[in-house]
Amino acid sequence: MVQKAYLGIDVGSISTNLVLMTPSKEIIGELYLYTGGMPIEAVFKGLGELRKK
Prior knowledge:
By secondary structure, the chain is an alpha+beta fold. Helices cover 26% and strands 40% of the residues. It has a 3-stranded antiparallel β-sheet with strand order 1-2-3, with helices on one face. The two termini are 14 Å apart.
């Protein structure tokens, strides 16, 4: 089933955080990763991991 959701991404020098929430503000996925000096790779990794959930 497809549902509408919003994705928030915060990339910093130390960590990358992703959160997925419904329009009613229910969190349906969240993830904390170390950026490790590679912010683009961290975002792609996070998106892949969120998709698995």
